[in-house]
Amino acid sequence: MTSSVRPFLYAITDAEVALSYGWRPRELARAYLAGGARLIQVRGKGLPSGALLALVDEIVADAQPCGARIIVNDRADIACLTGAAGVHVGQDDLDPRSARRIVGAAAIVGFSTHTPEQLQRAIGQPLSYVAIGPVFPTGTKDTGYAAVGLALVRQARQTATVPVVAIGGITLDTVTSVVTAGAAGVAVITDLLAGGNPESRTRGFVTLLEGLAIEPAREF
Questions:
Q1: Interval 33-61: pLDDT, tens
Q2: Which one-letter DSSP state was computed for residue 41?
Q3: Measured between alpha carbons, how far is 43 from 188 in angstroms, rounded to an integer?
């Protein structure tokens, strides 16, 4: 008999996007935490290493009282230095095996995929989850890939040996369809800023996801 698990929100604090909406990255992450997000990625591709290290250090400290986990985009070294829960790497970043060697066996390692071929190559890698996207069109990040749609989410769910996280253009209006297609988690950036109240928007996602369940359970 399989058990069910509630799908989760994976809130992404992108420093550049946060500032474009008038938010300091740390304050935005705090809003996500207050809204109930318990898995947050910190992305600061344009930040100098020292500034990113300080930002992640602050957010990790903010997350500790509520037991939230912080993932660092790209930088396995900063994940280690700050005591973050893990690292997320992309196709052009450090490869998952190297990232795993740096952060250790107990840490979270996520990996971005955008095509069936990339998804297939991810199988057998030392991953905690595999991300697939962009599911829908998005202007937040230019991945160089067209929207993959729900079909690739379904394929990922059938073939991946770890939880599938969907990303790209996901909103409150589309999140149910993404979970129904097989995503264990949904990574969201821009829609959490919709309406100017990210804490409330985050709470809306968390509440909606709490009413859904996927089979069988896949957690990390």
A1: 999 999 999 999 999 999 999 999 999 99
A2: E
A3: 12
Residues with active-site annotation: 43, 112, 141
Domain count, the chain: 1
Q: What is the mean pLDDT of each run of 10 residues along the chain (220 residues)?
A: 68 98 98 98 97 98 98 98 98 96 98 96 96 88 79 94 96 96 96 96 96 69
Residue closest to 62 by CA, chosen among 34, 89, 41, 86: 34
Q: At a CB cut-off of 8 Å and minimum separation 6, what does 134 contact?
A: 114, 143, 145, 146, 147, 148, 167, 168, 169
CA angle 194–199–202, rounded 5-degree value: 70
Tokens, residue 123: 């199988």
User: Tokens standing for 216?
Assistant: 């069988």
Asked if residue 2 belongs to a domain, the reply is no
Phi and psi at 88, nearest 5°, equal -120, 130
Q: Which domain holds residue 117?
A: 8-210
- Residue 215 placed within a domain: no
CATH number, domain at 145?
3.20.20.70
Task: Return d(Cα 149, Cα 152) in angstroms, integer.
Answer: 6
- pTM across the whole model: 0.94
Q: Which of 194, 140, 169, 185 is nearest to 23 (CA)?
A: 194
